[in-house]
Amino acid sequence: MKKVVLVVDDEASVTEYLKLDLEEHNPNIKVICQNTGYEALKEIMEGSVDLLLTDIAMPDMDGYELYSRAKDYDKNLTIIMMTGFGYDPGHAVVKSRGDGLRDVVFKPFDIQKLSDLIQKRIRGE
Fold it and tell me: Which of 105, 115, 103 is nearest to 20 (CA)?
């Protein structure tokens, strides 16, 4: 059975690009996309998400809020944050790391490295 990766970014072009590339590089995953934190939380609450890949800067909630709410709902959910900013003005990464976040990737990223990281985390490494 395929593992489900939820990709969240407020830019639909980013989520669609990631869906195509990640599924091409990882035949054992199914990528679903959402463009708001609230839509992402709804997906997570439905219980079918194995890994969350989320942007930090979104208009409805920042990455830390989504990280925190997702972890409140499912403390075992694997989460990777992505950002296009070297500087995190809201310190979402710092707060999330303090709460256990392991992985942050910076845009633009190497799709193969991201795919490898997702595979590693899905395997529980």
Answer: 115
Can you give the pTM of this predicted structure?
0.89
State the Cα–Cα distance between residues 117 and 38, nearest whole angstrom. Answer: 25
- What is the identity of the amino acid at 89? P
CA separation for the pair 20, 83 (Å, rounded)? 19
Query: 3-class SS at 24?
Result: helix
End-to-end CA distance of the chain: 19
Q: Which helix (H) or strand (E) holds 120?
A: helix 111-122
Specify burial of residue 50 (Cβ count, 10 A radius: 0-12, 13-18, 19+). middle
Q: Which CATH class is domain 3-122?
A: alpha beta
CA–CA dist 120, 85 (Å, integer): 24
CA atoms of 5 and 21, how far apart (whole Å): 13
pLDDT given at position 24: 95
DSSP code of residue 89 = T
